[in-house]
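Re: [ENG-882] Designed sequences occasionally contain unexpected residues at chain ends

Forwarding the minimal case from QA. Structure tokens:
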């Protein structure tokens, strides 16, 4: 089993590196790998190639890698915490809160890319604050799950009303954000450390997550501080899913589907294996989605939905058997 897991990890690492290279090559203008390497290392190549590779494709590929890893790990945490196979990174209304923040900013006429991303971040944080307050008063984690879903539905309704009332230009800006926001280098300087901090918290929560696999009652008997562990997992999930949503727009199904795919690949429920494996598998699939979106000029969230729906159907059918 150990050797099998090692081979799978090596295969995933190779897949991420290979797909990252392909993502740098593919676009409106295909660039050979040799030219990409020259552009990255300062070799002899046209200035236009250097600008495309360094300023556009490198950032976009890196963002896809971060988004896939962050959303997948966030989904894994939510599924374990709620003990629900259909729980995802947006189950607490993080995505809806981000959408509400963006809708409010766009409706007010502040449609700059950084302003939109910042508003989404604030919206996600506000949702977490309310859920955190509820979590302190409510011990039943399933009740918190239901509250998050209800809050998400209510916020989504408000966003729809704001879209209906907004001007054409503002509505266009909001729709573009929902498809996939373009992340700048300055925004990446915030996105990367935020996601990195969320992943560090996820690694620190490995032991609590393994205990929670057997239920909260068992975890308490083993000496786990439920509220503190729950708070750390919530914070990690918000940093991961909330930050990606803020800067990249809502990307569905990756966080829901990839934890299940990883469990099936490794045939393991130990989070010491699942968390790094989910990072790699989520990153590779998100890069694939980015490559497909550039090849066919389609929004990334549409590609992730098409790839994720079969997995969701499989989960539902498996749990009904």
């Amino acid at each position: 089993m150990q050797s099998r897991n090692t081979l799978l990890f090596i295969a995933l690492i190779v897949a991420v590196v290979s797909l990252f290279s392909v993502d740098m090559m593919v676009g409106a203008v295909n660039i050979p790998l040799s030219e990409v390497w020259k552009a990255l290392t300062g070799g002899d190549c046209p200035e236009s190639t250097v600008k495309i590779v360094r300023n556009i494709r490198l950032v976009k590929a890196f963002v896809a890698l971060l988004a896939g890893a962050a959303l997948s790990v966030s989904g894994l945490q939510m599924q374990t915490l709620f003990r629900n196979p259909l729980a995802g990174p947006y189950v607490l209304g993080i995505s809806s809160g981000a959408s509400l923040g963006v809708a409010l900013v766009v409706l007010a006429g502040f449609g700059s890319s950084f302003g939109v991303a910042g508003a989404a971040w604030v919206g996600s944080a506000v949702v977490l604050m309310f859920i955190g307050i509820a979590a302190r008063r409510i011990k039943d984690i399933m009740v918190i799950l239901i509250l998050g879903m209800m809050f998400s539905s209510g916020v989504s309704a408000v966003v729809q009303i704001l879209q209906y009332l907004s001007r054409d230009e503002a509505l266009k800006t909001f729709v573009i954000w929902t498809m996939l926001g373009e992340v700048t280098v300055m925004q990446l300087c915030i996105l990367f450390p935020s996601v990195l901090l969320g992943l560090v918290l996820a690694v620190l929560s490995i032991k609590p997550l393994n205990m929670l696999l057997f239920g909260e009652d068992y975890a308490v008997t083993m000496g786990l501080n439920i509220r503190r562990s729950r708070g750390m997992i919530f914070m990690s999930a918000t940093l991961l899913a909330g930050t990606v949503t803020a800067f990249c727009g809502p990307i569905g199904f990756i966080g829901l589907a990839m934890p299940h795919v990883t469990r099936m690949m490794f045939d393991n429920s130990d989070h010491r294996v699942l968390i790094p494996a989910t990072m790699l598998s989520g990153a590779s699939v998100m890069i694939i989605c980015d490559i497909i979106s550039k090849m066919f000029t389609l929004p990334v969230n549409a590609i992730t939905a098409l790839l994720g729906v079969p997995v969701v159907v499989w989960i539902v059918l498996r749990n009904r058997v």
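QA comment: On inspection the terminal residues look reasonable. Residues 47-82 form the longest helix (36 residues). Proposing we downgrade this to a documentation issue.
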